[in-house]
């Protein structure tokens, strides 16, 4: 890993890898989205045959209950520990997210006006679960549980099929545990478009959540506004703050755990100890030699950085510049840092709180803001699956007392009929007196 100083780090040119890639591919994705909008299921079948399974048929899109039950039964027989792990994760994630529940609220003014906010769950949400060679049951857990806690009426899951027209067994078993209402075998930008517009096969949803490749991210960007989305996620990152007391082996594996996600994943070690920096760099290289991983190696070589700081006080400025998706604090004095750092998706404190425990089991959501967007975005939560409606029941007393202020602002803005709608009420009251 490259080693630099905090001073040099602040003079690096900020990279916009995600944005550059978006701009190059957006025209392709826009054509797919428009095709699905116009041609609906015919387009879905065409793209699924092209990208996933050549002999796919219309009737193959919908996952039948028998397929879900068979997947669950297979896990019961062949991998019961997986089901135990998923159920424990479900319990922890549900417990955490129940604390995020919002309630409707109201208050009454002295003159009898009632003001408040109504909270309603979304009617239908779509979850995108990546396919390919990997299996992502954790995506099903993290995206569906806060929606269930929010009392979303219907949860729809989409995932690309393999060449045998099947979805991943572990994903299906997890979907059963999570109580997913409908599951469809479809992936890519075309799946996002179908969820946004609705087709005869796929229902239109109110919000789309879940990770995906560049094409999925771009499709979510394009349909935002037609539906809501969680975020336009880019390559993720971890920043680890450590001093001489930290275990270099723990750090090395935590960096590699992030690096194995994506060649563009960013990994940072911020430390006051040059000896620790050297040792972690050496161990990362030794691990990659002993356990080769091309994705992790490319990420570490191109996106990995060790930043030397003179004192922990400098850490805050460095972290705020990165605004990392994941932040690990493996140092003394972490309490002081915790109250000063404002821009991180999730913070992991202590040597037994690695990012991986948060990814799967601890309870907080692992769908987090990436690429520095932790400066203004939050983790996925129950609040993402509800909508808020304002309530105004103004009393006659409050109206007569305050309406002239609104009249004044309306005339300043040049909106005469806004003002007149207020003035006619005052006139009506006066004539009726």
From TrEMBL:
InterPro entries listed in its UniProt record: Ald_DH/histidinol_DH, Histidinol_DH_CS, Histidinol_DH_monofunct, Hstdl_DH
GO CC terms, sorted: cytosol
Keywords: Amino-acid biosynthesis, Histidine biosynthesis, Metal-binding, NAD, Oxidoreductase, Zinc
Pfam families: Histidinol_dh
CDD domains named in the record: Histidinol_dh (cd06572)
The UniProt record lists the keyword Mitochondrion: no
Enzyme class per UniProt: oxidoreductase
Residues binding Zn(2+): 258, 261, 359, 418
Listed GO MF terms: histidinol dehydrogenase activity; NAD binding; zinc ion binding
Cofactor: Zn(2+)
Residues holding NAD(+): 128, 190, 213
Active-site annotation: 325 (proton acceptor), 326 (proton acceptor)
Residues annotated to bind substrate: 236, 258, 261, 326, 359, 413, 418
Pathway as given in its UniProt record: Amino-acid biosynthesis; L-histidine biosynthesis; L-histidine from 5-phospho-alpha-D-ribose 1-diphosphate: step 9/9
EC nos: 1.1.1.23
Gene3D superfamilies, sorted: 1.20.5.1300, Nitrogenase molybdenum iron protein domain (3.40.50.1980)
Listed HAMAP family: HisD
Annotated function: Catalyzes the sequential NAD-dependent oxidations of L-histidinol to L-histidinaldehyde and then to L-histidine.
Protein name as catalogued: Histidinol dehydrogenase
Organism the protein comes from: Pseudothermotoga thermarum DSM 5069
Gene: hisD
